């Protein structure tokens, strides 16, 4: 055998992963299509798999936070919405307690997916994000309006599980214990309470596509994301232990609830609606499954969302508290930014009232706060690194309304 032939043989009989020749390893195992793996690579792969298994096992058996603890942590970031916090805390605690006990008891506990109904900016998405942070589990968020029924242009519903896999670093076992938040589910309602006779690819069709995912099923997840790569090897995920939380504004559903509960009194001159003196929040708190079905959600979809709770609209006092109290409150964020430049920014009580009133006018809840702050803080933030050293800034109602500009005042020297 000449040297050229020997070199070709040595190269062919080398580990396909590390490149080591069969002469320098203890064992070289051949697979299909002349693919080889050495004993050292096998050991390395085994170690990685063991670490993943230990991480998953630790996740399953660790102590689950109590509902009281979960609610207290939610209170650190979300103002108000006490009932929604309690409902979520109990649902999440029972769900993850179920993961630990299901292998040790003959009684099988079923999971309870959650539906959050409330106006925009009331904290639905934030509640789901904080829950995932508290529990230290993979978390994925998706907008239901981007989904379309299979076979049509748009995003596959399975892609939300791909996001969960990515958040779990493609550890399938850990991803199968995560939380998925689907926002804007009210936008996939069908156009009426009756079954559609035409294709509703972004409404009823999407609801039908989500059904199997919400309960126990094996879903083929495309690792490259969707229909553009039909040749890809799918990853199978069991959705039995994935907690699904759905959120939506369901704009106009309060009218459906009013019609149901607003029974008129019987008798001469009785023409007053019993719901006239109730606020929108009070009306939403009485939401029932039939109201959602009349809105356009199909029976099977709502039937898989076992816990339904509503979030209250935010009032002026709530918005003021949101600006000041949470750990990531917007006022604290700006104070931190100014502190990094050795400056101080103060907000008068009257200015916070003015900001809250302007936010209410926009009717987007707490989401309006950031844009309002950015408007009147822009010029000061622009000059802060150059002209704001050792200065104090005071935000007044005139600054918020734009009548005056936020200007620095030199700090007095300490004695």
Distance between the termini: 93 Å
Helical content class:
40-55%
- Flag low-confidence runs: 56-61, 264-268
Strand content: 5-15%
Which oligomeric state applies?
single chain
Strand order of the largest sheet: 4-5-8-3-9
Secondary-structure map:
Layout: H1 3-12, E1 28-30, E2 36-38, H2 39-61, H3 67-75, H4 82-101, E3 114-117, H5 124-135, E4 139-143, H6 159-167, H7 172-175, E5 179-183, H8 204-214, E6 218-221, E7 235-238, E8 243-248, H9 253-261, H10 280-284, H11 289-295, H12 299-303, E9 307-310, H13 316-324, H14 330-340, E10 344-347, H15 349-362, H16 367-387, E11 391-395, H17 397-401, E12 409-410
Parallel strand pairs: 3-8, 3-9, 4-5, 5-8, 10-11
Antiparallel strand pairs: 1-2, 6-7, 11-12
Helix pairs in contact: 3-4, 9-11, 13-15, 15-16
Question: What would you note in describing this structure?
Answer:
- The structure is a single chain.
- α3 packs across α4.
- A five-stranded parallel beta sheet has the order 4-5-8-3-9. A three-stranded mixed beta sheet has the order 10-11-12.
- It has 415 residues and is an alpha/beta fold.
- The chain contains 17 helices and twelve strands.
